[in-house]
Amino acid sequence: MTDIEVVDLLRAHGIRPSAHRVAIALYVLGNETHPSAETVLRNVRERLPVISRATVYNTLNLMNEKGLLRQHPFGPGTVFDSNVSRHHHFIDSETGEMRDVPWEKLSVSGLDSIKDAEITDYMIVIRGRFKKREA
Amino acid sequence: MTDIEVVDLLRAHGIRPSAHRVAIALYVLGNETHPSAETVLRNVRERLPVISRATVYNTLNLMNEKGLLRQHPFGPGTVFDSNVSRHHHFIDSETGEMRDVPWEKLSVSGLDSIKDAEITDYMIVIRGRFKKREA
DNA sequence: ATGGAAGATAGACTAGTTCCAGATCTTGAC
DNA sequence: GTCAAGATCTGGAACTAGTCTATCTTCCAT
C-alpha cells in the first residue's frame, strides 16, 4: 500500500491524514498480522523516531471507531486487525499467534434460538496449534 | 457447594487445599457470573479478611492450570469462568457483562476444512445487547 | 497574517498482574 | 510432640497496558 493510497483511505473515513497517522496506518494496514499497540509503536518508530505512545493509541482507537480496523481483546492485551470484513480467528495456544479464518469456511447454526438478546456480531474463536510448514 | 466438596475437588485436581485456596474456590466455583480477579479478592476478603492479592492471582492461575476453571481475556481484563464444560459466550457490548450460551444451542460446521492446524478447542463469541427483563 | 479548531506531545496516572524475599504454616519422620 | 523440609502466604515493588491532561503545534478559512 502506498502513502497516497493510505492518505486517501484515511480521508475517505473522515480522518485527517497527518504524517503520524499515515505512518501508523501504513504499518497496520499493510500488515496481515495482529499487532498490539506496543508492536505498532515499536515499528512505526523505526520510520518515525519521534512519536509518542499516546498518539499511537489515539490513532488506533480513531481508526477503530471509523471502521478502518478492528480491535480484539484476545490474549493478554488488545490486538488490532486490519481485516475489517467478517472472519473467524485461530489462535495458536503455544505462541499466541493469531490467524484469520475466512468467513465462508465455517458456519454457525442455531443463532436464531437466542431470544433474550439482540446479536450484532459473532465469530468463532478456535484454539490449537499450527502445523509447522518450515522445512 | 460445601467446604468438604471444595476440599475434595481441589485435592482431586492436585491442589493442596489450604484455607485460603478453599475460600477462593468456594467463591469462584459457587458462582455463575464471570468475576475478575479483583472481584474475587473483594468477595473473599469478606470471609477471610487477611488475604493478599498475590494469593488470589496465584490460586486462580493454579486453578486455571489444573482445569478447575477457565480464564477468558474478553472485555478489558481477564475474567474467570467456573464453567469448564464446553459452552459459548455472549457479551453485552454496552455493559461488558458475559453470559454462557449452552453448547448444544449452537453448532459450527466446516471445522474439518481446517487442514493446517490442530484444533484443541473452539467457541462462538457473540456480541450484542441483552434484552431487558426487569419491569 | 490571524484566530480558532484539530492534532500531537510528554509525562503523570491508573489498573491489572507478576515477581520476590522473607514470614508462616503443614507435613511426615522420628 | 518436635523438627526440618517444603509448601504457602504476605506486602510491596516492579512491570505492563492503557488513559488522561496540560501544553504546544499545525492547519485552514478568513
Record keyword descriptors for this entry:
Arc Repressor Mutant, subunit A, three-stranded mixed beta sheet, about 140 residues, two-stranded antiparallel ribbon, alpha+beta, about 25% strand, DNA-binding, homodimer, 2 domains
Question: How would the blueprint of this fold be written?
Answer:
Two copies of one chain form a homodimer.
Chain A: H1 3-12, H2 19-29, H3 37-47, H4 53-65, E1 70-72, E2 79-81, E3 87-92, E4 98-102, E5 107-109, E6 117-130
Parallel strand pairs in A: 3-6
Antiparallel strand pairs in A: 1-2, 3-4
Helix pairs in contact in A: 1-2, 2-3, 2-4, 3-4
Chain B binds a DNA duplex (30 and 30 nucleotides) through helix 4.
Provide a short characterization of the protein structure:
Chain A has helices at 3-12, 19-29, 37-47, 53-65, and strands spanning 70-72, 79-81, 87-92, 98-102, 107-109, 117-130.
How would you portray this structure in words?
The structure is a homodimer of 135-residue chains. With 135 residues, chain A is an alpha+beta fold. The first copy, chain A, folds into two domains: 3-81, Arc Repressor Mutant, subunit A (Orthogonal Bundle); 87-128. Chain A has four helices and six strands; from the N terminus they run ααααββββββ. The first copy, chain A, has helices spanning 3-12, 19-29, 37-47, 53-65; strands at residues 70-72, 79-81, 87-92, 98-102, 107-109, 117-130. In chain A, the strands form two sheets. Chain A has a three-stranded mixed sheet with strand order 4-3-6, with no helix packed on it. In chain A, strands 1-2 form a two-stranded antiparallel sheet. In chain A, a hairpin with a 6-residue loop joins strand 1 and strand 2 (79-81). The two termini of chain A are 30 Å apart. The interface between A and B is medium-sized, with 34 and 35 residues. The structure holds a DNA duplex (30 and 30 nucleotides).
